[in-house]
Amino acid sequence: MAKTSPNEFFNQVKAEARKVVWPTRQETTSTAIFVALMMVLLSVFFLGIDSLFGYVVKILLSLAS
């Protein structure tokens, strides 16, 4: 592989950076709302699963003693 000079490297970096398409404010807001909603839904789901398993273990332990 041929070596690239630092100047050429930075020119290539700038050229690639110009190709980046940044999200709009609306896209960023809607994505953030979606992530927050999914986070709440999944936390409630895992709370329910954890509570259910805790209840089952408590019952099993009470049967053993």
UniProtKB/TrEMBL annotation:
Pfam families: SecE. Component of the Sec protein translocase complex. Heterotrimer consisting of SecY, SecE and SecG subunits. The heterotrimers can form oligomers, although 1 heterotrimer is thought to be able to translocate proteins. Interacts with the ribosome. Interacts with SecDF, and other proteins may be involved. Interacts with SecA. It is found in: Cell membrane; Membrane. This is Protein translocase subunit SecE. Essential subunit of the Sec protein translocation channel SecYEG. Clamps together the 2 halves of SecY. May contact the channel plug during translocation. GO terms for molecular function: protein transmembrane transporter activity. One of its GO terms (biological process) is protein secretion. The chain crosses the membrane at residues 32-57. It is a single-pass membrane protein. Keywords: Cell membrane, Membrane, Protein transport, Translocation, Transmembrane, Transmembrane helix, Transport. It comes from the Bacteria. GO terms for cellular component: plasma membrane. Belongs to the SecE/SEC61-gamma family.
